[in-house]
Amino acid sequence: MIQDSNFDRVMESRDHFKDGASSKSQMSRGNKNDLSFKFLAMKNIFLLLSICLLASNLFSVYGQSDFGNEKYRRHTGFYLSMSVGPTFGGISYSVKGSPGQIEFSGTGAQFDLKIGGAVKENLILHASMITTSISGAKVNQAGRLSENVSISENMLIGGGLTYYVMPSNIFLSGSAGMGYYNIIDTKESDNNIKTDNGFSMQLKVGKEWWVGKKWGLGVALTYGTTIVNNGPYDGIEEKLTSNRFGILFNVTLN
């Protein structure tokens, strides 16, 4: 397979519509965007590790004497959950009326944040924000490969439910909302894309272990997809669809 030198070939199905058309896309500028993807992933990992350390310290100082008290270790009241970890899978891109499609793939980093409260014990209603970033994603178009692209998949506004099966502390969670994509060409900023909004969802199953009166640490498996029909120029219709799986590490306050 041939190594493609830039993202122009990937975007050629767009370009012949571009001349004389009014663009609705919000184009970002500069190659500093690629560094921002890496910085965001590192910041999210550092944040979660810091929270894990804080939770462990709180448990060692305050939690042990009351750890067996059954008025604690219950899923009631305020709920805050943060997760980070690797994701795997692909994102497909196609243009209506054009043959074939483009595949984005690679291992990325996902961060999700859920804030809400228990509507009854063990059943949580929450707002959800989820972002997945892939720096240096592999782009495959008809056998041609490029690695000059970073892509993020974001749930902009979402909500969901989480249910805990007690006393095993296994949880099932689902979130849905509006999502969009950012595609950054690290060599040619004129090719950068921010899509329209579409449907985004996440399913999650995992287990947590109590490390204090209200703190839990855990691990979860996730599946997520974002489906966007994008109209960047008059006369062109694009569709982007993701299928991504992840392994996330959780910190929960409840």
CATH architecture tag:
Beta Barrel
Q: Beta-sheet strand percentage? A: over 45%
- The tally of domains stands at 1
CATH class: Mainly Beta
Spatial extent as radius of gyration: 21 Å
State the helicity in percent bands: 10-25%
Q: N-to-C SSE series?
A: HHEEEEEEEEEE
Main structural class? alpha+beta
Average the pLDDT over all residues and give the rounded result.
78
Structure characterization notes:
The protein has 254 residues and is α+β, with helices and mostly antiparallel strands. The protein has one domain: Porin. 15% of the residues lie in helices and 55% in strands. Strands 1, 2, 3, 4, 5, 6, 7, 8, 9 and 10 form a ten-stranded antiparallel β-sheet that branches. A hairpin with a 7-residue loop joins strand 9 and strand 10. It is elongated. The N and C termini lie far apart (51 Å). 37% of the residues are buried. The N terminus is likely disordered.
List the helices and strands and how they pair.
Blueprint: H1 12-18, H2 32-63, E1 78-95, E2 102-105, E3 108-120, E4 123-141, E5 144-165, E6 170-185, E7 193-194, E8 198-210, E9 215-230, E10 238-253
Antiparallel strand pairs: 1-2, 1-3, 1-10, 2-4, 3-4, 4-5, 5-6, 6-7, 6-8, 8-9, 9-10
